């Protein structure tokens, strides 16, 4: 349920009203203070609430029930865009275009540091790299694990770029303490126990859309994290399963404006896993920017032919440089 208070409602009246709602109806009240109004979002079982009684309060402008099952992730509860600020001042969701780039897997110190330096020179603001890899086959390279995390930190020290890397289980959360953005991969989008534990942290979480997840299921997974108190969620569209098999997945471009209208959370697009083919990364990334994405996450490898994972979809640093220039130019032209 959403209650919009009149501009003349004092903060004391608002607080007293919130306390009354919490006590009388056993709901949680989420308060959003805008410039011209205050919006109260009621979470919990609101079926017992008499809507006419609420509407009759002199400082209530309007009241309506929210049909969607996601509340904290819902734009109706939080009309402004959420902006996530990283330790080095990079902001995601503020209208700028942020590019996360790096290899699928961290393979060696030399590899990750050289890629980090080149993607930084090309304008990337965040370094990606998998240390714990969710592979379809148990016989494929599983990542350098803890050593991979250490190498990412070395690359951060060498370049100043914040790092984003994937977590696979709750027991690793402590190990990810100094990671800037924790990625929840497509395969774990509905690992609810993991999501609940991440909800207890205050880390930015890059939540990838599940392989066959609907937009509502994806937003409900964001809700799991937010229900625990962590509002720093970034949604990542990375392609979904369809009958088409020319591409690895099918990029759901329409999800970008849809999710941005339904939710206030930033949206990042992964054209690498969506397509599975390096030559498709540029056009899909351009489509994502044109459709309003707040950022991109792109795989870059110094030697794609010998990459330990996802070489076919990885750009070389030179290719990434050319793609990044086009993306920033497109973004600039959209803002002009
Ligand atoms: C990845 O980013 O390397 C990855 C495994 O992504 P996804 O979970 O989208 O498949
Ligand atoms: Mn990959």
Explained architecture:
This protein has helices at residues 11-25, 51-55, 109-121, 146-159, 192-199, 215-227, 255-262, 271-275, 278-290, 317-335; strands at 2-5, 28-33, 38-43, 60-64, 84-85, 91-92, 98-102, 126-128, 163-167, 181-184, 205-208, 233-237, 267-269, 295-299. It has 336 residues and is an alpha/beta fold. The chain folds into 2 domains: 2-64, Alpha-Beta Plaits (2-Layer Sandwich); 84-335, Aldolase class I (TIM Barrel), CATH 3.20.20.70. The chain has an 8-stranded parallel barrel with strand order 7-8-9-10-11-12-13-14, surrounded by 5 helices. Helix 5 (192-199) packs across helix 6 and helix 9 (278-290) runs parallel beside helix 10 (317-335). The two termini are 38 Å apart. The mean pLDDT is 96. Bound molecules: phosphoenolpyruvate and manganese (II) ion (MN). Manganese (II) ion binds next to loops. Phosphoenolpyruvate binds next to loops.
Mean pLDDT across the residues is 96
Architecture per CATH nomenclature, i.e. the level-2 architecture of the largest domain:
Alpha-Beta Barrel
Q: Report the order of strands and helices.
A: EHEEHEEEEHEHEEHEHEHEHHEH
- First and last CA, distance: 38 Å
Number of helices: 10
């Amino acid at each position: 349920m959403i209650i919009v208070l009149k501009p003349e409602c004092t903060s004391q009246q608002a607080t007293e009203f919130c306390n009354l709602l919490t006590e009388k109806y056993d709901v949680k009240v989420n308060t959003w203070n805008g410039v011209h109004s205050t919006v109260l979002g009621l979470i919990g079982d609101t079926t017992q609430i008499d809507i006419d009684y609420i509407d009759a309060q002199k400082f209530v402008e309007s009241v309506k029930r929210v049909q969607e099952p996601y509340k904290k992730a819902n734009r109706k509860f939080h009309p402004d865009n959420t902006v996530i600020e990283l330790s080095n001042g990079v902001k995601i969701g503020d209208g700028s275009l942020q590019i996360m780039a790096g290899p699928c897997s961290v393979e060696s110190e030399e590899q990750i540091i050289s890629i980090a330096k080149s993607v930084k020179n090309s304008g990337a603001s965040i370094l990606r790299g998998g240390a714990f890899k969710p592979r379809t086959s148990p016989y494929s390279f599983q990542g350098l694990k803890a050593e991979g995390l250490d190498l990412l930190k070395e690359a951060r020290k060498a370049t100043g770029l914040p790092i984003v890397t994937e977590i696979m289980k709750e027991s690793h959360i402590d190990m990810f303490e100094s990671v800037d953005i924790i990625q929840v991969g497509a395969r774990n989008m509905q690992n609810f126990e993991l999501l609940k534990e991440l909800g207890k942290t205050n880390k930015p979480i890059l939540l990838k859309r599940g392989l066959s997840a609907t937009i509502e299921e994806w937003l409900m997974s964001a809700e799991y994290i937010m229900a625990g108190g962590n509002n720093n969620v970034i949604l990542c569209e990375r392609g979904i399963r369809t009958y088409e098999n020319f591409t690895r997945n099918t990029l759901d471009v329409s999800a970008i404006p849809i999710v941005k209208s339904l939710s206030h959370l930033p949206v990042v697009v992964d054209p690498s896993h969506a397509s599975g083919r390096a030559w498709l990364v540029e056009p899909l990334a351009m489509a994502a920017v044109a459709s309003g994405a707040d950022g991109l996450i792109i795989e870059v490898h110094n030697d794609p032919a010998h990459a330990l994972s996802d070489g076919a979809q990885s750009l070389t640093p030179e290719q990434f440089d050319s793609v990044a220039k086009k993306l920033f130019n497109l973004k600039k032209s959209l803002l002009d």
